[in-house]
Amino acid sequence: MTMWFFDEAEELEEYQTFRRQDQPLELEYLKIRVALGAAEAALREHPEDKERETKVAEIKEKIATMEQRAPWLTFDYPVEYLLWGPPHG
Q1: What is the three-state SS of 13-52?
Q2: 1-10: string of b/e by CB count within 10 Å (b at 16+)?
Q3: For residue 56, which of 42, 77, 45, 73 has the smallest C-alpha distance?
Q4: Where would I find the H helices in 46-75?
Q5: Alpha-carbon distance 11 to 83, whole Å?
Q6: 42 φ/ψ angles, rounded to the nearest 5 degrees
Q7: Which residues contact 9 (CB under 8 A, 6 or more apart)?
Q8: pLDDT digit string (tens) for 6-44?
Q9: For the chain, how far is it from start to end, CA to CA, in angstroms?
Q10: Dihedral of the CA atoms 21, 68, 54, 48 (nearest 10)?
C-alpha cells in the first residue's frame, strides 16, 4: 500500500475525475488571486490612478464570478478531505 492511495485506487475513479476536471479551475483561481494582489499593491502605490482602480475592480469581479460558479474554492478544507476524509466526531 502506498501513501498516495487516492491517485492509484481504482475504486476512487470519481476522485480522479474530479481532479482532472477541477484542477485547471483551481490553478486559474490561484493565478487570478495573485494578479489581484499585484494589482492592489500597484494601486496602493498610486491611489489616484483610475486605470489601476478599474483593473482591481475587474479582477475582483472575475473572482466573484468564479466563487459563484465553484463555491468550494473558498472552503477552509481541501475538497478531497471533505468528500473522502474520515467522518468527524
Answers
A1: HHHHHHHHHHHHHHHHHHHHHHHHHHHHHHHHHCCCCHHH
A2: eeeeeeeeee
A3: 42
A4: 50-69
A5: 14
A6: -65, -35
A7: 15
A8: 555 555 677 777 778 888 998 999 999 999 999 999 999
A9: 26
A10: -120
Report the C-alpha gap between 4 and 60 in whole angstroms.
35
Task: Evaluate the CA torsion angle 19, 25, 29, 31 in order and state its sign.
Answer: positive
Rounded-to-integer distance, Cα 14 and Cα 59, Å = 32
Nearest to 12 by CA among 85, 73, 76, 69: 85
Provide φ and ψ at 10, rounded to 5°: -70, -25
Query: What tens digit of pLDDT does each residue of 39-71 get?
Result: 999 999 999 999 999 999 999 999 999 999 988
57: left (phi over 0), alpha (psi -120 to 50) or beta: alpha
